[in-house]
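Friendly challenge for the regulars: who can give me the structure tokens for this chain first? No prize, just bragging rights.
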Amino acid sequence: MNRRHFLTEGLVAAATIIVGDCRAFGASAHRYQLAPEAILPEGLRYASDEIREAYRFAAANRDILRYIPCYCGCGEQGHTSNASCYVKDTSLPGKLEFDAMSVG
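First reply, four minutes later:
Bragging rights claimed.
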């Protein structure tokens, strides 16, 4: 058995064990809360699926994202956390204002 064959089979076996173990704990069924798609402004409705999902997640989970710092340098723009990269800090819960920074 050569080194490449050993590494390939070892990685496949490890991945099989990890995926199997995660399914046993229900990880494959994990879903997170998203805000409805209709909450997004017109400009975001045509963004990629990943971007729309990130904004929907941020809108539904601002209370969690506000504790996660952002490292992209947007603090100069007044952003206070990762939540600020998606939803403006001054937004009220029933009337969200989105920041377009995370689109690109």
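The radius of gyration is 19 Å. Confidence is low (pLDDT under 50) at residues 2-8, 10-23. Your move, everyone else.
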